Amino acid sequence: MADIQGSYDQLFSAVPSALAASLDDGDVGASVAVFVDGEPVVDVWGGFADTGRTIPWQRDTIVNVWSVTKTMTALCALVLADRGELDLAAPVARYWPEFEAAGKEDVLVRHLLAHTAGLPDWDGPLTADDLYDWPAATARLAAQAPQWEPGSAAGYHSITQGFLVGEVVRRITGRSLGAFFADEVAGPLGADFHIGLPAEDDHRVALAVPPPNRDEDYTASAPGDSATRAAGTGIRVRDGNSEAWRRAEIPAASGFGNARSIARVQSVMACGGAVRGVRLLSRAGCDRAWEEQFSGEDRVLGMPMRYGLGYGLFGSTYGWGGWGGSMVMIEPDARMAVAYVTNQMREPADDTRGLEVVMATYDGLQGLRA
């Protein structure tokens, strides 16, 4: 069995066992964290940070978690809304006047968070290099027309969501999304999560490993009207492994952290807005994430989805997953946050690792409640 490092409450022993099983099945490396009442009951890791399996995964190893980053961006918006600085029901153009062009005067801030704004991608071709130019990327979105009547349908805004919400945050605060997150969320919580990674942290990064029989030109795909749209305009593994990607702030997809940092941050949502004496928002502010904005067929993903304000809704839980397998799940009734991150990507249709970790946590919860 794979060697698992870290610590865990014996009630949750099924969780490290699930991690060990995925490593035994060929995964390179990963970490898992479970926080209840804002405190870790599981904080474990194992495997390796490199494809050559020569560098052990360490306590402070971090990885690109792709779309799990969206939950951090959503939290920033919810914090501003709770402070009264952002009206989620207001037109986006109230904060970003140029955005009103091309028939977008009725796009509301909540539409951005719920993938219903009609801007799931950019008009015309786009490369990873284009994403590194924030003014240009946001200007293109401001100039283009929505693909459907805003609010009437949903289509996963895989990369655009981060630029849309991030620009609203920038217009309100004068700070980039990454800077606001660092100052107002990660800093107060002591969370090792970064949107725009400093060079001094490069040595801690476990680069993404493509799924078996794939190389670094692998891009995501999904059923629906455009396979590359779900991939974020054809972003490749090699793009995510580049230095330029780490430095850039792509608030829907370029967050770097480990399971511990994700679970710590999202415990704020699980615990009514405060953990370890740090309050980021009110209980009412947390509850906004639960407000269903859309339920039905997602035009891009080609499957039924329920969206709240910045999070996917799944029964009594909410959260989101990232390309390749990383995920976060919030269970407010149990005041629990579960996070799983990995450098080993798998094909989406074949990947049940996050679900297996989540299911394993319920064994421990039953013990806590006994």
Main sheet summary: 7 strands, antiparallel
Count of β-strands: 14
Order of helices and strands: EHEEEHHHHHHEHHHEHEEHEEEEEEH
Unreliable residue runs: 222-232
The CATH fourth-level homologous superfamily = DD-peptidase/beta-lactamase superfamily
Name given to the CATH architecture: 3-Layer(aba) Sandwich
Q: Under CATH, the topology is which?
A: Beta-lactamase
Description:
The chain is of the alpha+beta class and 370 residues long. The protein contains 13 helices and 14 strands. It has helices spanning 14-24, 69-82, 109-113, 128-131, 134-143, 160-173, 177-189, 227-230, 237-240, 243-247, 259-270, 283-287, 353-369; strands spanning 4-8, 29-36, 39-47, 63-64, 194-195, 255-257, 274-275, 278-279, 294-297, 304-307, 312-314, 317-321, 327-331, 336-342. The strands form 4 sheets. It has a 7-stranded antiparallel β-sheet. A 3-stranded antiparallel β-sheet has the order 4-6-5. The protein has a two-stranded antiparallel sheet with strand order 7-8. Strand 2 (29-36) and strand 3 (39-47) form a beta hairpin. Helix 1 runs antiparallel to helix 13 (353-369), helix 2 (69-82) runs parallel beside helix 6 and helix 5 (134-143) packs across helix 6 (160-173). The radius of gyration is 19 Å and the shape is globular. The two termini are 30 Å apart.
